[in-house]
């Protein structure tokens, strides 16, 4: 699609906001990528929005994976074992998502946003790490990865909020290692989903580039500010969760047409 000058600026701003939030509070920011493209940038095709954001989330995840790798917080055996069946699941999820009506897909996406917001409100951040011995449960890791991949592919999201506890459940790794390792799956799931959508011509490549550029700058700024906030990050997490809830409620209202089926 042809973007106006205003939409170009808004695309960079929206990507920056997502990156800033991720850097600031460490998660959940990518869930806003879809509503920002819909209601701020003004792209009204739900499938193009989801395909484009899936690719943007994948690129940002792989970029953020590098510093975690350098700090030795990526457990590659578990990450790869989790990601391979998850990628297959993401293909299945994306195929189902593309076949679903756009309004129905956005309605279900809004429901997912509410679930994430509630989970963020109930999660208390801690600087402590669990030093359990890593024990990879083979079948559990494959099953959990595949299930998470289907959800990620269906909604076109990174799914980090599911992948982190999934890795901890399947491998007994510490929280910090699960966060670092999850980025490999987030990137893999997002890339797999994006490839599926791109084959169907459902990615706006220009918006993707603008979104990633904004996300990189926003992520750097968010990370810098995060180190100065200390305990105030919990307050920001509560505020951000509330914003997600408000946006989700509006999306539910905006897509209520599916209840008339």
UniProtKB/TrEMBL annotation:
Subcellular location: Cell membrane; Membrane
GO CC annotation terms, alphabetical: plasma membrane
Membrane topology: Multi-pass membrane protein
InterPro entries: TM_pro_TauE-like, TSUP/Inactive_protease-like
Principal subcellular localization: membrane
Keywords, alphabetical: Cell membrane, Membrane, Transmembrane, Transmembrane helix
Pfam families linked: TauE
Domain of life: Bacteria
Membrane-crossing residue ranges in chain numbering: 12-41, 48-66, 78-97, 104-122, 142-164, 176-199, 205-224, 236-253
Keyword Transmembrane in annotation: yes
Residues forming coiled coils: none
Membership in a protein family: Belongs to the 4-toluene sulfonate uptake permease (TSUP) (TC 2.A.102) family.
Name of this chain's protein: Probable membrane transporter protein
């Amino acid at each position: 699609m042809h973007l106006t000058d205003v939409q170009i600026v808004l695309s960079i701003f929206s990507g920056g906001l997502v990156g800033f939030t991720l850097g600031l509070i460490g998660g959940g920011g990518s869930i806003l990528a879809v509503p920002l493209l819909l209601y701020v940038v003004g792209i009204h095709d739900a499938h193009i929005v989801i395909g484009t954001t899936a690719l943007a989330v994948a690129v940002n995840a792989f970029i953020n994976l590098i510093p975690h790798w350098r700090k030795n917080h990526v457990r590659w055996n578990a990450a790869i074992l989790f990601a391979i069946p998850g990628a297959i699941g993401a293909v299945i999820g994306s195929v189902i998502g593309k076949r679903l009506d756009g309004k129905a897909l956005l309605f279900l996406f809004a429901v997912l946003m509410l679930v994430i917001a509630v989970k963020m409100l109930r999660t208390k951040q801690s600087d402590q790490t669990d030093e359990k011995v890593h024990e990879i449960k083979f079948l559990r890791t494959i099953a959990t990865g595949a299930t998470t991949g289907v959800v990620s592919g269906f909604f076109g999201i990174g799914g980090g909020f599911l992948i982190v506890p999934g890795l901890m459940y399947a491998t007994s790794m510490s929280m910090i290692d699960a966060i670092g390792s999850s980025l490999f799956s987030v990137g893999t799931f997002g890339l797999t989903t994006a490839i599926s959508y791109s084959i169907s011509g459902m990615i706006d490549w220009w918006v993707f580039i603008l979104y990633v550029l904004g996300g990189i700058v926003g992520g750097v700024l968010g990370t810098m500010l995060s180190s100065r906030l200390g305990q105030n990050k919990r307050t920001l997490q509560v505020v951000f969760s509330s914003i997600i809830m408000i946006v989700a409620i509006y999306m539910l209202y905006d897509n209520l047409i599916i209840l008339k089926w």
